[in-house]
Amino acid sequence: MSVIGLVFYLTLGGNVLAQWGLIPSGKKGGAFSASVLLAFIAASAAASLTHGLAFRYLLSPWGLESLAPILFSALLFGAFAAIKAIGTALGRPSRPLHDETLFQPTLVLYAVALSIGSRFSSTGLLLLGGAAAALGYIAATGFLEAIMERLELERVPEPFRGVPLRFLSAALMALAFAGVDAGFFSRLSL
Amino acid sequence: MVIDNGRVSAGPLASLAGLAPLLVFSNSLSQGVALGVAFFLAYSAAGAMALLLPARLGRSLVFMFSILGAAVVSSLTASALRLFDPFLFEAAYDRVFLSVFTLPVLRACVIPATVSDRERAIERLLWGIGYSFLIAVTGAAREFLATGAVSTRFGTERGSLLPIFAQPAGAFMLIALAAAAFTVVIKAVRGSES
């Protein structure tokens, strides 16, 4: 698969929001600065690379694939300690790991690391795949929040307002992504 | 649970979004049961660690140890699944691993803030059982809707009824319909009480 094909696949048919059910809560929909989004994409690429390489070269040769969650936890704690140390050195306090706003990004990072690590083995593809999957997730989150905002203006039946409507919108998005991917991009050898 | 402006706005419905990664993958009874058990073990381990570790360690350390405990339990669950059914393990291992980082498990890793929160451990355990049951039932319901039958064995030949329910989009639709029905029932119950 070429680089363009990979990006399209991870944005549409392989989108982690639609395929893995990583539905954002919508409490802070789309209100993130460019630097936060860039940091998230970089973190995703780094998580895919480190987890993918460690899984392939540390766990798989010994038949220890089942230890993957412990490996990711160790990588997560290591990265968090490094970020905290850098923040302390720069005089900028970092958020604690048990801050609830970090739970969804952590889940997405692990899902991306698992999804990309099981597909690719080369360093470049792991990095690019991680970044493309994060980009796809951000784009899908933006679409979902825009749909929800627009639906606030419509006369939706009362029982469907809130969480049910969010899931129905995600269902239609998942159908659309899968349809475009199956009908168009997967037939192209980009 | 709170009914705010006519909407059920917190509690179980909000937790559905956190469980969605497992509900989306649970498209057969066997996968649902495997994921439900894996989730329950990780959730219980996380909750137990957060309750039993001494508070003097601090919230961050207790949180980290609780995640680590849930990860160890998840690894053991995956190993047991691999021995029990290697094909099911190959199909489900990534979601078994992901169960450690789902929102209910991460919330269970946070040390209870007050004594009254600590005393609600049984309630949290019951919620864990309820979530696990929901994951298994979702798997069975989706398998039935997609194929017209429910099989206890993974990977057996099945027919075709509404194949969309085997896809993630079908899972989202089913969750949305269930959540809407739940909202109607809760409002009706509250209405009859007042």
Question: What layout of secondary structure does this protein have?
Answer:
The complex is a heterodimer of chains A (190) and B (194).
Chain A: H1 3-11, H2 16-20, H3 34-59, H4 68-89, H5 103-117, H6 123-151, H7 163-183
Chain B: E1 3-4, E2 7-8, H1 12-25, H2 29-52, H3 59-84, H4 86-98, H5 103-108, H6 115-118, H7 121-147, H8 168-193
Antiparallel strand pairs in B: 1-2
Helix pairs in contact in B: 1-7, 1-8, 2-3, 2-4, 2-7, 3-4
Outline the structure in words.
The complex is a heterodimer of chains A (190) and B (194). Helices cover 67% and strands 0% of the residues of chain A. Chain A is mostly helical. Chain A has one domain. The longest helix of chain A has 29 residues, at 123-151. Chain A is globular, with a radius of gyration of 18 Å. Chain B has 8 helices and 2 strands. Chain B has helices spanning 12-25, 29-52, 59-84, 86-98, 103-108, 115-118, 121-147, 168-193; strands at 3-4, 7-8. In chain B, helix 2 (29-52) runs antiparallel to helix 7 (121-147) and helix 3 runs antiparallel to helix 4 (86-98). In chain B, strand 1 (3-4) and strand 2 (7-8) form a beta hairpin. Chain B has one domain. With 194 residues, chain B is mainly alpha-helical. In chain B, strands 1-2 form a two-stranded antiparallel sheet. The interface between A and B is large, with 48 and 58 residues.
Question: Could you write a compact summary of the structure shown?
Answer:
The complex is a heterodimer of chains A (190) and B (194). Chain A is mainly alpha-helical and 190 residues long. Chain A is built from seven helices and no strands.
